[in-house]
């Protein structure tokens, strides 16, 4: 029987692991499908307190991992497939094996959203991606486009200017959703061309099955045009990774876990931290803060039961 199982190794999960480990709870931490979470797909993080020069996302995650391990957190590669809440303890199925635990901290984060256009699945890795950090270097001296108008889209577009000959920033409105500093930086970059009021309607595929461009529709006039690009970077937000908890834990209409005071879910002993329960702030630092809170709440819950 485990005392604490933490699902996810992004900022929330790793911070929960550090706190639970320091409280001598020897937490079991499940790495999940994307070990390290979303920070592993980013480069410079400029707004994490304590790093005036910025910090590399994967480096920050590696250090948190090391810190959690140092205090006794145990890491296991595996994905939670099923969850059975109980009165005394909870059961989770991880890669076919059932694990029993007194408390569960869900920090499984959120996954990139896609446009839902035809051929999408086949094109991933053939000119379609949601991660500029991972794939940007493959597209040197060719035109590419980024879909979206948020911080992610601006950040991805800026990063891609290191490689691509030209970066089109395709947004469905005429104002960016991104924070002012990120929006100003993107729009001031001579290699970034914004295409306002444009909605992607189809991927254009060449004879070899690779991306050759994207068809866009003007959201005001309805006119359609083809944009020739070698890669489309989709940066239109995220969906929370909550599927195994559907029908068992309270969720909002978009699948985000609902916290009932602090990080508590509706099931006693089950806590939710980070992007899996937060569609408002979604920052590394807020996720870390919630991970800390969840670990403290789990510790108090266990102590009260003893
Ligand atoms: P976001 O803020 O939700 O923005 C998503 C963008 O995609 C919006 O501009 C949205 O358009 C557009 N969009 C959504 N669905 C679309 C569709 N089907 N077709 C076309 N466009 C679509 O997501 P995000 O940029 O990933 O940011 C998420 C959070 O992470 C935010 O809190 C952000 O501040 C944070 N973040 C921070 C940093 C940083 O500080 N370094 C970097 C990245 C992300 P509308 O605007 O019209 O809705």
Write the layout of secondary structure elements.
Elements: E1 2-7, H1 11-22, E2 28-30, E3 44-45, E4 55-56, H2 57-70, E5 74-76, E6 80-84, E7 90-94, E8 97-106, E9 110-112, H3 120-123, E10 128-129, H4 132-135, E11 143-147, H5 151-160, E12 166-170, H6 180-188, E13 192-195, E14 198-205, E15 211-218, E16 224-227, E17 231-234, E18 238-240, E19 270-272, H7 284-305
The structure holds NADP nicotinamide-adenine-dinucleotide phosphate (NAP).
Structure commentary:
With 306 residues, the chain is α/β, with parallel strands linked by helices. It has 2 domains: 2-111 and 238-305, 3-Layer(bba) Sandwich (FAD/NAD(P)-binding domain), CATH 3.50.50; 114-234, 3-Layer(bba) Sandwich (FAD/NAD(P)-binding domain), CATH 3.50.50.60. Helix content is 25%, strand content 28%. It has 7 helices and 19 strands. Strands 1, 2, 5, 6, 7, 8 and 19 form a 7-stranded mixed sheet that branches. A hairpin with a 5-residue loop joins β6 (80-84) and β7. The chain is elongated, with a radius of gyration of 21 Å. The two termini are 15 Å apart. The model has no long low-confidence stretch (mean pLDDT 95). It binds NADP nicotinamide-adenine-dinucleotide phosphate. The site of NADP nicotinamide-adenine-dinucleotide phosphate has 18 residues, from α5. Residues 47, 115, 147-153, 155, 172-173, 177, 179, 235-237, 282 line the site of NADP nicotinamide-adenine-dinucleotide phosphate (NAP).
């Amino acid at each position: 029987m485990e005392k604490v199982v933490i699902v996810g190794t992004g900022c929330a999960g790793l911070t929960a692991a550090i706190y639970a480990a320091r409280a001598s709870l020897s937490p079991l931490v499940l790495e999940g499908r994307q070990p390290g979470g979303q920070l592993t797909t980013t480069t410079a993080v400029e707004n994490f307190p304590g790093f005036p020069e910025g910090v590399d996302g994967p480096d920050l995650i590696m250090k948190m991992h090391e810190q959690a391990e140092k205090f006794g957190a145990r890491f296991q590669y595996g994905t939670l497939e099923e969850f059975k809440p109980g009165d005394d303890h909870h059961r989770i199925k991880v890669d076919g094996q059932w694990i029993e635990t007194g408390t569960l901290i869900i920090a499984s984060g959120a996954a990139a959203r896609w446009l839902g256009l035809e051929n999408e699945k086949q094109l991933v890795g053939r000119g379609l991606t949601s991660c500029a950090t991972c794939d940007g270097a493959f597209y040197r001296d060719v035109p590419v486009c980024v879909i979206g108008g948020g911080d992610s889209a601006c950040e991805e577009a800026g990063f891609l200017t290191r490689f691509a000959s030209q970066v089109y920033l395709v947004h469905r409105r005429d104002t960016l959703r991104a924070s002012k500093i990120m929006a100003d930086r993107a729009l001031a970059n001579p290699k970034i061309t914004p295409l306002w009021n444009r909605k992607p309607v189809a991927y254009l595929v060449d004879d070899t099955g690779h991306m050759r461009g994207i068809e866009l529709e003007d959201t005001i006039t309805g006119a359609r045009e083809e944009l020739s690009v070698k890669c489309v970077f989709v940066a239109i937000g995220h969906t929370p990774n909550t599927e195994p908890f559907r029908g068992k834990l309270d969720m909002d209409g978009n699948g985000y876990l609902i916290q009932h005071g602090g990080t508590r879910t509706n099931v006693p002993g089950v806590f939710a931290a980070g992007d899996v329960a937060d569609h408002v702030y979604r920052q590394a630092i807020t996720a870390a803060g919630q991970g800390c809170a969840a670990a403290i709440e789990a510790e108090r819950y266990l102590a009260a039961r003893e």
